[in-house]
Input
Amino acid sequence: QQRLWFLHQFEGPSATYNIPLALRLTGPLNTDALTAALGDVIARHESLRTLFDATEGQPFQHILPPDQALTDIPLTDIPPATDPNHNHLDSSDLNGTDLAGTGETEVGEDEIVVAVAETAGYRFDLAHEIPLRATVFRSGPDQHVLVLVLHHIAGDGWSMAPLIEDLTHAYTARRTGEEPHWQPLPVHYADYTLWQHHLLGETTDPDSLIATQYRYWHHQLDGAPELTPLPTDRPRPKVASYHGNTIDFTIPAHLHHRLDQLARTHGITMSMLTQSALAVLLHKHGAGDDLCIGGPIAGRTDTALTDLIGFFVNTWVLRVDLTGHPRFDQILDQVRDKALAAYTHQDLPFELLVELLNPTRTTAYHPLFQICLAWQNNTLPTIDLPDLQATALPAL
Output
């Protein structure tokens, strides 16, 4: 949270660290029950009703009481598309059908795509508003799209599962006029932050966990290149724009099976195998022999944190040595050993590691690594809402 608060101060409000989720809801939606259910979830998770202000330049958590964190869910009507040439999406993406040959579709799909993207780009004021927003778009009597936008300072990818599970449970209860009944959370996020500070100790204490883990990372990253020298077709800008794109592809089942067999043979995870392959690919494209690849790590090292919405993910750096043209099985062994060691030294916050290592800081590129591999094998739970069919939509 301290890292994202600093970036928020440095860059100003932006959508860079938004986590959006869009759900198409087909069927009769009870908006009053949905609003009440969202309030229930916000009351359950302190991270969703925390403001981030500062005193003398230092941030602090201001946790609002549940009755002060109530939020409305705006309902916006999306008009149906009337121009037969209006919809530029492939017909397989459309839920609407031509009405009486008029060219009018039941759902103005282009408008929904634009509306969802604009909503996902909301810029939070973290000092004055809670880090969760919800919006509903209505394109027909029984056609709605719910967009949830969670700022990363209050959650991570893992958090989306308990968010959906709790919202589903609360909506089901509120729809029958009941309050949700769930097991109390064993801890809250503020408890975790206090525990983390106590666990890490002080950098001035050589026997503290933070000092011990820093010595490990200092040894691992000493002399590492600050910039991955990939040959590019355009010069790197002086200020990173964060403009990017997405390329989707599918690995065939037979190839996945062979990769799984290879990973099992060498006693590694599929993530380690992919990291090794990425290192070889970068090396073949001119990135050199000394490669640093970043990656997120879940950070939920205690089962008490499993069902909590909060920002636990940390960042680690995999440094792969490809000098002397090692065989691929040697690279697999190297990556496995370094990954396992990193897991046991994962508590040191990445922003503190950067501060202690003090690499060259620039607005042109990320410190310590510029290429990141995120192995995201967490999936959303089944969304079982009464009388509603829920389908996830792209939100970016």
User: Anything to note?
Assistant: The CA atoms of residues 138 and 144 lie 4 Å apart.
